[in-house]
Write a structure and sequence with these properties.
With 139 residues, this protein is α+β, with helices and mostly antiparallel strands. The protein has one domain: Pnp Oxidase, Chain A (Roll). Helix content is 21%, strand content 43%. It contains three helices and eight strands. Strands 1, 2, 3, 4, 5, 6, 7 and 8 form an eight-stranded antiparallel sheet that branches. A hairpin with a 4-residue loop joins strand 4 and strand 5. Keywords: Oxidoreductase. InterPro entries: F420-binding_dom_put (IPR019920), F420H2_bilvrd_red/Heme_oxyg (IPR052019), Pyridox_Oxase_N (IPR011576), Split_barrel_FMN-bd (IPR012349). This is Pyridoxamine 5'-phosphate oxidase family protein.
């Protein structure tokens, strides 16, 4: 298992970065107001150089509402990607971004990883995660 401890300067091994460039879907875990986990499948992009993960979503989705209800400082979340015996988890603080240029950039990154542009959606927002911990096995 590879692991890094929380750090502002996240040093991501190339094998882990490469795994997050492969075309896989992931799960995102947020917490409901009562503290129980809400786990949903998502498409995610990860930029190791800035330790930023991005998930585009609908403004009214439960995951977005969970993060928004956490307030200005955001919410700790986990993204997990699995491929057979290989897996990786990215942890960090998520916040909601609504700026059109930021959302458009996230859509472009999505298209690069998944080979298609997300359908137009005026309710689209970005869940931006400042990753501060990684772990994984088999990568």
């Amino acid at each position: 298992m590879t692991s890094t401890s929380p750090s502002p300067a996240l040093n991501v091994p190339e094998a882990l970065a490469a795994f997050w460039r492969e075309r896989h879907y992931s799960t995102l875990t947020t917490l409901r107001p009562g503290g129980t986990p809400h786990v949903v499948p998502v498409s995610v992009t990860f930029e190791p150089d800035t330790a930023t993960a991005r998930v585009v979503s609908r403004r009214t989705s439960k995951k977005v509402r969970n993060i928004a209800e956490a307030g200005e400082k955001g919410m700790r979340v986990a993204l997990c990607q699995v491929d057979g015996g290989r897996w990786s988890t990215l942890e960090g603080r998520a916040r909601i971004r609504t700026e059109a240029d930021v959302v458009s950039d996230a859509e472009r990154r999505y298209e690069e990883r998944y080979g298609r542009r997300p359908r137009p959606n005026p309710e689209r927002v970005l869940i931006e995660i400042a990753v501060d911990r990684t772990m994984g096995r088999g990568i």
